[in-house]
Automatic annotation (TrEMBL):
<feature type="transmembrane region" description="Helical">
    <location>
        <begin position="21"/>
        <end position="37"/>
    </location>
</feature>
<dbReference type="Pfam" id="PF15009">
    <property type="entry name" value="STING_LBD"/>
</dbReference>
<dbReference type="InterPro" id="IPR055432">
    <property type="entry name" value="STING_LBD"/>
</dbReference>
<dbReference type="GO" id="GO:0002218">
    <property type="term" value="P:activation of innate immune response"/>
</dbReference>
<feature type="transmembrane region" description="Helical">
    <location>
        <begin position="43"/>
        <end position="66"/>
    </location>
</feature>
<dbReference type="GO" id="GO:0033116">
    <property type="term" value="C:endoplasmic reticulum-Golgi intermediate compartment membrane"/>
</dbReference>
<feature type="transmembrane region" description="Helical">
    <location>
        <begin position="86"/>
        <end position="105"/>
    </location>
</feature>
<dbReference type="GO" id="GO:0061709">
    <property type="term" value="P:reticulophagy"/>
</dbReference>
<dbReference type="GO" id="GO:0016239">
    <property type="term" value="P:positive regulation of macroautophagy"/>
</dbReference>
<dbReference type="GO" id="GO:0048471">
    <property type="term" value="C:perinuclear region of cytoplasm"/>
</dbReference>
<dbReference type="GO" id="GO:0032481">
    <property type="term" value="P:positive regulation of type I interferon production"/>
</dbReference>
<dbReference type="InterPro" id="IPR047191">
    <property type="entry name" value="STING_C_chordates"/>
</dbReference>
<dbReference type="InterPro" id="IPR029158">
    <property type="entry name" value="STING"/>
</dbReference>
<keyword id="KW-0472">Membrane</keyword>
<dbReference type="GO" id="GO:0005789">
    <property type="term" value="C:endoplasmic reticulum membrane"/>
</dbReference>
<dbReference type="GO" id="GO:0000139">
    <property type="term" value="C:Golgi membrane"/>
</dbReference>
<dbReference type="InterPro" id="IPR038623">
    <property type="entry name" value="STING_C_sf"/>
</dbReference>
Length: 405
């Protein structure tokens, strides 16, 4: 395994709207051609085509509705809500298509419909059969797109569970645990800011070792961070812990960081080993990539977890490098350090030698001597007795009338 140079080369992006745009363009072209060639029969042809394409799915939905009403009304629809069952079996857009076809038939003049009706009846008889046999069923791409859009993949559930059940609880407390750890160790671990984040490893093959040192001899267990105890789901003081590892670079210099594998990937790996799960190696790889993309999106939107983690996607296509894992982690740490930079303040004020005088200690006698304030505040205490505006010398000096109580 090696660290990816760019995750975008492997992580699938959400599918776009190119098929919809192509379908709309083709429909416009065909309807325009019919309108130009046979304008008097335009509505009749469109109505017949829509009816052929919608009546068949409607009849198939009726068969599904009968099954749901007889066997699943109580268990799946909480007592048999007919509206929900009709919508689930037939679909709103299918019913709207049938209504549109009926409307177009009403706009056309009465003409012999023998040829069109025969095609409609034949389509109604063949569509449910072809749909049941899977000929007209959705393709794998369509099923995958539906699952991704509706967040129905295994990866979506695992990513949300990993976030809400673990990361969202421990990441806000990670900085305090590291500070406590540094205070109790004199060796000075966590020298860099990047090493103070939780590094989460995600191998594409989902094969996770129980100990990192078993994967790479340049990785050594250093110590555990102080335990984090949280009351969770009825368990008082449930313990969450993180392990600190020491990584040796090419110069045999040690670098410390908190690193661990993404635990939900073990579930994906075990599922691919069970024949009853119907989860092959190809499905596992796809779900790992979706898990990475989903978890990254979730954490990017989480204020509690922001800047406290780092996801490292590992490719399983390596050239038998015995130190691939340590190189991947060290490369990521180095990349984080390069991303850290200091931003200078906008229009910084130059420092002056005179300290800032609090308003309560300013004497009116010295108002003409006050110079620009210093950028470094300090306290000046006057030992003179305060004057009031009612004294004649003050009023005459400034030409004021004074304040009356």
């Amino acid at each position: 395994m090696q660290q990816l140079g760019g995750e975008e080369s492997l992580v699938p992006q959400p599918r776009g709207s190119l098929p919809k745009a192509g379908a709309i363009g083709l429909a416009i072209m065909v309807m325009t051609a019919i309108l130009v060639l046979e304008p008097e029969s335009f509505f009749r042809h469109v109505a017949a085509a829509i009816l052929i394409l919608t009546v068949g799915p409607s009849l198939h939905g009726v068969f599904l509705l009968i099954e749901e009403c007889l066997h699943h009304a109580t268990t799946r629809y909480r007592g048999g809500r007919l509206g929900q069952m009709v919508t689930a079996c037939v679909g709103v857009y299918t019913l709207l298509g049938v209504g549109l076809a009926a409307l177009l038939f009403g706009l056309t003049e009465p003409q012999p419909w023998r040829d069109q009706w025969s095609m409609v009846v034949l389509a109604c008889g063949l569509y449910p059969l072809l749909r049941t046999l899977g000929v007209l069923g959705p393709s794998e791409v369509e099923v995958s797109e539906i699952c991704e859009e509706r967040k129905m993949n295994v990866a979506h559930g695992l990513a949300w569970s990993f976030h809400l059940g673990y990361l969202n609880l421990v990441l806000p407390r990670l900085e305090g645990s590291i500070a406590e750890f540094r205070a109790s160790h004199t060796a000075g671990p966590f020298e860099t800011r990047g090493s103070r984040k939780l590094l989460i490893l995600l191998p594409l093959n989902a094969n996770i070792a129980q100990k990192l040192e078993d994967e790479d001899t340049n990785i050594r267990f250093y110590d555990n961070l102080p335990n984090t105890e949280i009351n969770r789901a009825g368990v008082r003081g449930r313990v969450y812990k993180h392990s600190v590892y020491s990584l040796l670079d090419e110069n045999r210099q040690a670098h410390h960081c908190v690193v661990e594998y993404a635990t939900p990937l073990l579930t994906l790996y075990k599922m691919s080993q069970e024949s009853s799960a119907g989860f092959g190696e190809r499905d596992r790889r796809e779900q790992v990539l979706l898990f990475y993309r989903t978890l990254q999106d979730i954490l990017d939107r989480s204020l509690e977890c922001r800047n406290r983690y780092r996801l490292i996607l590992l490719n399983d296509e390596h050239e038998d490098d015995p130190h691939f894992l340590s190189k991947a982690i060290l490369k990521n740490l180095d990349q984080q350090e390069k991303e850290e930079f200091y931003v200078l303040p906008v229009n910084p004020q130059p420092e002056v030698d005179h300290p800032l005088i609090p308003p309560a200690t300013i004497r009116i006698d010295d108002m003409h001597q006050i110079e620009p304030m210093s950028s470094v505040p300090s306290l000046m205490i006057s030992h003179d007795m305060p004057h009031t505006l009612r004294e004649p010398d003050i009023l005459s000096q400034y030409g004021g009338t004074g304040l009356r109580r």
